[in-house]
Write a structure and sequence with these properties.
With 332 residues, this protein is of the alpha/beta class. The protein is built from 14 helices and eight strands. Helix 6 links the parallel strand 7 and strand 8. The chain binds nicotinamide-adenine-dinucleotide. Nicotinamide-adenine-dinucleotide binds next to helix 1.
């Protein structure tokens, strides 16, 4: 049994319940929002985000970060926009060599840095692991069979997460391609937003399948330029997460996209849905595509819709009217 502090009362609640119930760890759940902790104490569940998933009494609920002083492992599950600030607050409590796991998915919007870089800058004494893959909180919280990947450049840290997180309903694979796993998790949200737009416009399965497949191509193009392995994108953190996010109504990215496709202003759609990582990630991915001179037509089309007021139908038509191409740049 390990002492684990989980940061974040959304996806974090599902992970906390899982780690406590199936792996019998000593779990503390922290949120930056006092009202959220109070409501969970009162209701015995996270009614807003995970209705029906009971939070066992044995899980300690807190807003006090000093609980980290005694933790064997710290698990972040908070939106990427808050990660750096939270890392700064957490860092003084983290002992040298403690495993810090990030279950969030995103790219820092203004610096274009991956989360592994942000953690390395802010908590350099930690052993960093990213936990990512197709894992809706609503399903993890209910113990529905789920498979994810723990990726780290430090093999022992990844194996420790595999050991401590695995259960009969939660299967954890290991990978050492941190960049590839992080990019897959972050960028699939951009494609899910585009898939939602397609659904909102009333397009069909053909369109969505094309967006997913060609979306994966552009994710892989950027990923390999940044040093990732190609096969990472065919795995759980790439294709797997892309499928789950583009096809499910649990996905806030897809739901925001549907609203935009139906005519809602993009900023208003994001406001209505809540945390829509793909909205911010599209901005970051657009910046990375420009910086590394990578062709990312779906990301660029979505960027124009989200940030430059482009008409969605015209953006789709522009994608369809692009110069004729080979499916793969090089003949096999
Ligand atoms: N929800 C899912 O199914 C799911 C699954 C896999 C990964 N993720 C990723 O996990 C991350 C968190 O997603 P979520 O759905 O839990 O988001 P969320 O919007 O529910 O927020 C999670 C928590 O972040 C914390 N938070 C809010 N404002 C904060 C602030 N200013 N400073 C510090 N912490 C703050 C709060 O504790 C909140 O409960 C995202 O990157 C998301 O992509 C989510």
């Amino acid at each position: 049994m390990a002492r684990i502090t989980v940061l974040g009362g959304g996806f974090g609640t599902a992970l906390a319940v899982m780690l406590y119930s199936t792996q019998q760890h000593d779990v503390t759940l922290w949120s930056a929002i006092p009202e959220e902790i109070e409501a969970m104490r009162r209701d015995g569940e996270q009614k807003q985000k995970l209705p029906g998933v009971k939070i066992p009494n044995g899980i300690a609920l807190t807003t006090d970060l000093s609980v980290i002083d005694d933790s064997d492992l710290i698990l972040f599950a908070i939106p990427s926009a808050y990660v750096r600030d939270t890392c700064k607050k957490v860092a003084p409590h983290v002992k040298n060599g403690t495993v810090v796991v990030n279950a969030g998915k995103g790219i820092e919007e203004d610096t274009l840095k991956l989360m592994s870089k942000v953690f390395a800058e802010e908590i350099p004494q930690a052993l960093y692991v990213v936990l990512t893959g197709p894992s809706h909180a609503e399903e993890v919280g209910r113990g529905i069979p789920t498979s994810v990947v723990a990726a780290s450049s430090i093999a022992a840290a990844a194996y420790l997460v595999q050991e401590w997180f695995s259960s009969p309903t939660f299967r954890v694979y290991i990978n050492d391609d941190v960049t590839g796993c992080e990019l897959g998790g972050a960028l699939k949200n951009v494609i899910a937003l585009a898939a939602g737009v397609s659904d909102g416009l009333g397009f069909g399965d053909n369109t969505k399948a094309a967006l997913m497949t060609r979306g994966l191509h552009e994710i892989e193009r950027l990923g390999t330029a940044l040093g990732s392995r190609t096969n990472t994108f065919a795995g759980l953190t790439g294709l797997g997460d892309l499928i789950v996010t583009c096809t499910s109504m649990h996905s806030r990215n897809r739901r925001a996209g549907i609203l935009i496709g139906q005519g809602t202003d993009p900023a208003a759609a994001v406001e209505q849905v809540g945390t829509v990582e793909g909205y911010y990630c599209c901005h970051a991915a657009y910046g990375l595509a420009k910086r590394y001179e990578i062709e990312m037509p779906i990301t660029e089309a979505l960027y124009r819709v989200l940030y430059e007021g482009a008409d969605v139908r015209e953006a789709v038509q522009a994608l369809m009217d692009r110069p004729k191409k080979r499916e793969y740049e090089k003949l096999n």
